[in-house]
Amino acid sequence: MIHESGEDYLETILLLYSRNGYVRSIDIANELNYTKPSVSRAMSILKKSNYIEIDKSGHILLTDKGKLTAEKIAERHKFIAEFLINVLGVSKENAYNDSCRIEHVISEESFQQIKEYLKTTVN
């Protein structure tokens, strides 16, 4: 089982890769405003757990397992933020900040209900 911070790192790697086409530790540190040693330690843990690979150039790549986990977290983040904005009227900034915390603790049942509600009501 991956911890909340590991999920945040994976989601950030997915985001940075889609934005830049590559990801380095320094990119993650800059994006999350973390120190490079903290990111290096986290990357070591994620690598040992088979969520990422690091190539000879120092580029960080998600494994299939890592990509699946990152996409799941990103989906939760997106739908929860949309729900907070479109249904509850929460400001965009607060919705994205809150969804980042909620995505880690919400049950699969509750998430699926939010997702279904948005698909049938908001669109």
Automatic annotation (TrEMBL):
The keyword rRNA-binding does not apply. Residues 1-63 form the HTH dtxR-type domain. Gene3D superfamilies: Iron dependent repressor, metal binding and dimerisation domain, Winged helix-like DNA-binding domain superfamily/Winged helix DNA-binding domain. Keywords: DNA-binding, Transcription, Transcription regulation. SUPFAM superfamilies: Iron-dependent repressor protein, dimerization domain (SSF47979), Winged helix' DNA-binding domain (SSF46785). It comes from the Bacteria. Pfam families: Fe_dep_repr_C, Fe_dep_repress. Belongs to the DtxR/MntR family. This is Mn-dependent DtxR family transcriptional regulator.
